[in-house]
Amino acid sequence: MYRNLLIVGIEPKAPGLHIFTQAYTPRAGLPRLLTKAQELGHKCVIFCEEMHQSQIDWDLVAQADLILVSATTSTAPRAYELAAKAKERNLEAIILGGGPHFTFECQEALNHGIDFVFRHWADKSFFEWLDWYQSLHDPKDLMVDDVRKLSLIAGLAFKIAGHTHKTGMPDRVDPDSWPTPDFRLVRGFKPRFITLITSEGCDHNCEFCSEWAMHGGRYRVRSLDKVIEDIRFYWRVYGKMTIFIGDDNLAADQRNDSGQMLVPGTERLAELCRMIIAAGLQGVYSGQVRLALADNPELLSLMSQAGFDRVYIGYESINPDNDKATGGKLDFARMGEQTAMFHRQGIAVHAMWILGFDNDTLDTVRRTIQAAIRWRIDTNQFMILMPLPGSPLRSRLMRAGRIIHSDWEKYDGHHVVFVPCLMKPWELQAAVILKAMPAVYNLWQTGWIYLASNFRTLRRWISRRAPHPRTEFKSHAITFVLRVVGLNVVMRARRLSKPYLQQLKKKEFPTER
After folding, report:
1. Element spanning 457, H or E
2. pLDDT of residue 512
């Protein structure tokens, strides 16, 4: 007879400042899994260390049957600390790990207190493992037959008698089988916005990204009827809540396993907007798209009508020599023009830049700063190139001996962890953290962007081209606040980065190719 379990999920805090320091929201993985577990009768609770109101209840951890820890690369060391502490408090609990870092560094995870690792996605494997666990008399005393049963669960890694076992890629799961993640499971979570996932995977295999390997080159989408149900659910629970659609690319093309086009991504996004409007769900939405979407003004207009007030775009690089490294998806000569096209539709832009590609120089950093200012991009995120586990970039740099260290806490996009080709490591560190971020987040730039954005919306309102002028004006105010808060975060990051900058300066690294 299976019993109901107490399952505790833990999302470790990041080691330092990051883009969501002041506006944090839990990732959707743990809520999605534990929502389904709760539907099966288990008692579930999630703690997100990043939120001060969601501090871990260690008394509850001491009573838990299962403890799930989800980690990215920069939060992995903290995850191992939490796993060790959980073992001290609860000797009988099983520690389970998941997420991108554990997927590609599963041996490391198993050596640091994680009992079982769910690699890639766990929508099916976790519940197959749960059935196996419920059937055991003593899960700590695994027998040969247990190894055989566990080996049938795809996407699992575990260690028995000092030997590590890894099974193959998990089976594809229909995204319509996902429950709507219930963020009420997250202790103390009072959302400013909700993250909604409508697809998983990516249609580009960029060298610096591990997303392609994480999802096995597969791209899975949730039906739009289900997406509308998700939005209705969150509005019932939280009121007319701002929704951030956290897909890697909201307008990615749907293809079959052979690469044949099934549905163009722009058609799916347009249909989503039409369904939002038809259902009377116009609100405040944002999502990640590609810059090339600007060349579809009809779609941008439809997005504006549906309530999309902000997009997050991977600008990646201003340097045309980085075309191959950035996936060949940018029209470098038209980036400024395309930015203006979003602005003409009343849609704010958050640009995500990467600096440190093999063809980048200090002049590349300077020109990137100038472009961000000249194009009046609403908010910018300058990241240092990261050789993440699972990415082709890491494999290439490892072979070339260009990885400086694997101190995972520094793999956050704010620390140089490799030897660039045309700069010294400390030069890249100083250029991004000490120059680029402060240059675009100064108060003069913030005030100018605020005034220019409001004037643009006023003209659209007068000419009756702004479907939601109040939302646009509010969006500009939010951008102003984000930039002021961002300046504070940037100045704190400058101070915190100086000891690491000195460490880089004291070491000699070759800069030849």
Report:
1. helix 443-462
2. 39
Residue with tokens 């703690």, as numbered in its chain? 47
Lookup result for tokens 């941008």 = 300
Q: Report the candidate in 298, 293, 296, 306 with the shortest Cα–Cα distance to residue 349.
A: 293
* Cβ-based burial of 508 (10 A; exposed 0-12, middle 13-18, buried ≥19): exposed
Average pLDDT over residues 471-478: 93
CA distance 74 to 49: 14
Looking at the DSSP bridge assignments, the partners of residue 43 are 6
Q: Which residue has the tokens 């600008």?
A: 315
Other Cβ atoms less than 10 A from the Cβ of 384: the count is 24
The strand ranges marked E within 12-75 are 43-48, 66-70
Mean pLDDT of 278-291: 95
Residue positions counted in the chain:
513
Cβ(11)–Cβ(48) below 8 Å:
yes
- Of 184, 33, 189, 10, the closest CA to residue 93 belongs to 10
Average pLDDT score, the chain = 90
Of 169-173, 271-275, 332-336, minimum mean pLDDT range? 169-173
In 10 A of CB 432, how many CB atoms? 25
Instruction: Give yes or no for residue 217 having a pLDDT over 80.
Output: no
Which residues lie below 8 Å from residue 260, measured CB to CB, with a gap of 6+?
Answer: none
Unique residue bearing structure tokens 């392609």: 212
Bridge partners of residue 116, in order along the sequence: 96, 158
Task: Please check the confidence at residue 244 and state whether its pLDDT lies above 70.
Answer: yes
Q: How far apart are CA 188 and CA 367, in angstroms?
A: 43
Report the DSSP beta bridge partners of residue 44. Answer: 7
Please choose, from the candidates 186, 187, 10, the residue with its C-alpha nearest in 3D space to the C-alpha of residue 89: 10
Report pLDDT for 138.
60
- In this structure, is the dihedral angle defined by the CA atoms of residues 245, 251, 256 and 257, taken in order, positive or negative? negative
**Alpha-helix residue ranges (DSSP H) falling in 376-431:** 392-399, 425-429
Q: What amino acid is encoded at 127 in this protein?
A: F
Tell me which DSSP letter residue 49 carries. Answer: T
From 132, 1, 123, 11, select the one nearest 67 (Cα to Cα): 11
Q: Nearest CA to 196 among 233, 150, 146, 144?
A: 233
Would the pTM count as exceeding 0.90? yes
